[in-house]
């Protein structure tokens, strides 16, 4: 941005201003469309012990407004068109700082969305910035909201909106709407595609470790004898969706024995080259989507197929456990981290023999560190749960891992399952 002359004069003071100086403009939003007079609301801070002396607004390099103190709240007449504006503070120590923002001034009513752009591909959380005007209601805009796939997901008072929505990867039709004080409304559609970080083809990845488990305690064992046996064979071309499926086998002679396969993706012992040594990435992750395809010719011999996501940090453990009971009752269960038990969801689990079954699990760690089981989708049928459980205590372990488990039936009948297109999306 080209600095106006008064700002250029103060440039040295800005660069050498004490720490913690700054201007926070809450209204208007940078890049937004507004009507005249445009509403400006801002606060300022400074490292100067004497505080902020005054604040001002420049429009296209011309100082248009000044007020005393560290707060600014005014309606500023601006001609229609695109304008570069600057909100600046001056402190009692001779220092100054500023925030620059562009506004589009219009004399028409409606909803203007500056972010995200229509048909954009964005990460999550998705940042929404919008403003609204109304010419038919003299009382102005009462509130604004965001609809995601026809569901109202966010509401803010006033004629501007600035929000972050945590959306799972996918394609969405979103609508930003305004409601005025006269009962009127207007809106704008914003189509977006949401992406996240993703590990793909995990079935073909290095790093898998296998353990046996015996009832009734189900502690893990590495050398389990003939009680439970297993094998994992990667690079399977048929049956396969990618020519790189993995074959998982379970057998043995102990009824109801299980085999757990686990892979550490992020953090300690990472198989993906992401050790997170500074312990900054793992605590920042809140959302996970476990997506896989599985195939079997005799799935009815499986007591249970289990699919888990695990996150560990700051002595907290989060295990989003999902099990599909097949011989055990054709229903999905989820893991209760409080009482360490499986809880029936009422969601049917009826995978099809001799066909690829597509499973998607959507989970979240909430801002107050609860485990949220959001949704289960099997073969295109999606069920939203939104069930919550606290975490459990764990030692000094930092990591994100995924599990795949096969459970034996009352005869420990041997069976085989093929897994392909296994991914974990995280953000």
Please describe what this structure looks like:
The chain is an all-beta fold and 427 residues long. The protein folds into three domains: 5-106, Immunoglobulins (Immunoglobulin-like); 110-194, Immunoglobulins (Immunoglobulin-like), CATH 2.60.40.10; 198-426, Galactose-binding domain-like (Jelly Rolls, Sandwich). Helices cover 2% and strands 58% of the residues. The chain is built from two helices and 33 strands. Strand 18 (209-213) and strand 19 form a beta hairpin. The two termini are 33 Å apart.
Descriptive labels:
Jelly Rolls, single chain, Immunoglobulin-like, 427 residues, mainly beta, nine-stranded antiparallel β-sheet
How would the blueprint of this fold be written?
Blueprint: H1 5-9, H2 11-15, E1 22-27, E2 32-35, E3 38-45, E4 52-59, E5 62-68, E6 71-76, E7 81-91, E8 96-106, E9 110-115, E10 120-122, E11 126-133, E12 141-148, E13 151-157, E14 160-165, E15 170-180, E16 185-194, E17 197-199, E18 209-213, E19 220-221, E20 229-236, E21 245-251, E22 258-267, E23 287-295, E24 304-313, E25 316-325, E26 331-336, E27 341-348, E28 357-365, E29 371-378, E30 381-389, E31 392-393, E32 399-407, E33 415-426
Parallel strand pairs: 2-8, 10-16
Antiparallel strand pairs: 1-3, 3-6, 4-5, 4-7, 7-8, 9-11, 11-14, 12-13, 12-15, 15-16, 17-33, 18-19, 18-22, 20-21, 21-33, 22-32, 23-28, 23-33, 24-25, 24-32, 25-26, 25-31, 26-27, 28-29, 29-30
- The CATH class of the largest domain, by name, is Mainly Beta
Secondary structure tally: strands: 33
| Helix-strand makeup class | mainly beta
| Beta-strand proportion | over 45%
- The helix content is under 10%
| Domains (count) | 3
Shape: elongated
Main β-sheet description? 9 strands, antiparallel
Output the CATH topology of the largest domain: Jelly Rolls
- Give unreliable regions as ranges: 1-19
Q: What is the averaged pLDDT score?
A: 91
Q: What quaternary form is this?
A: single chain
CATH H-level homologous superfamily name of the largest domain: Galactose-binding domain-like
């Amino acid at each position: 941005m080209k600095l106006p002359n008064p700002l250029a004069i103060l440039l040295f003071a800005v660069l050498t201003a004490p720490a913690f100086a700054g201007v926070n403009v809450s209204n208007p939003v940078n890049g937004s469309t507004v009507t005249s007079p445009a509403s400006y609301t801002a606060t300022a801070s400074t490292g100067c012990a004497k505080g902020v002396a005054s604040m001002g607004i420049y429009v296209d390099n011309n100082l248009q407004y000044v007020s005393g103190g560290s707060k600014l709240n005014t309606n500023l007449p601006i001609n229609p068109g695109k304008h570069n504006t600057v909100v600046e503070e001056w402190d009692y120590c001779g220092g100054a700082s500023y925030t620059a923002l562009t506004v589009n001034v219009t004399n028409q009513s409606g909803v203007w969305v500056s972010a995200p752009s229509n048909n954009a591909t964005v990460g999550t959380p998705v940042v929404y910035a919008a403003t609204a005007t109304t010419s038919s209601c003299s009382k102005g805009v009462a509130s604004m909201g965001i609809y995601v796939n026809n569901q109202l997901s966010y509401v803010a008072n006033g004629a501007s909106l600035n929000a972050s929505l945590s959306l799972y990867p996918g394609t969405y039709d979103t609508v930003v709407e305004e409601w005025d004080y006269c009962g009127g409304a207007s809106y704008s559609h914003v189509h977006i595609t949401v992406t996240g970080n993703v590990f793909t083809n995990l079935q073909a990845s290095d790093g898998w470790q296998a353990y046996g488990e015996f009832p009734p305690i189900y502690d893990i064992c590495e050398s389990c004898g003939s009680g439970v046996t297993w094998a994992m064979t990667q690079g399977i071309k048929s049956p396969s969706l990618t020519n790189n499926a993995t074959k998982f086998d379970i057998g043995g002679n102990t009824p109801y024995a299980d085999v757990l396969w686990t892979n550490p993706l992020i953090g300690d012992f990472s198989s993906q080259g992401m050790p997170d040594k500074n312990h900054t990435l793992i605590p920042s992750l809140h959302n996970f989507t476990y997506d896989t395809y599985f195939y079997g010719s005799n799935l009815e011999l499986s007591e249970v197929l289990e699919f888990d996501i695990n996150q560990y940090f700051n002595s907290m453990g989060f295990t989003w456990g999902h099990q599909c009971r097949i011989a055990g009752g054709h229903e999905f269960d989820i893991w209760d981290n409080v009482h360490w038990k499986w809880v029936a969801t009422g969601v049917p689990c009826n995978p099809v023999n001799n066909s690829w079954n597509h499973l998607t699990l959507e989970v979240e760690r909430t801002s107050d560190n609860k485990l949220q089981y959001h949704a289960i989708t099997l073969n295109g049928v999606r069920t939203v749960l939104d069930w919550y459980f606290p975490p459990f205590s764990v030692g000094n372990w930092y990591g994100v891992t995924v599990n795949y488990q096969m459970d034996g039936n009352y005869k420990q009948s041997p069976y085989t399952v093929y897994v392909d297109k296994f991914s974990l999306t995280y953000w």
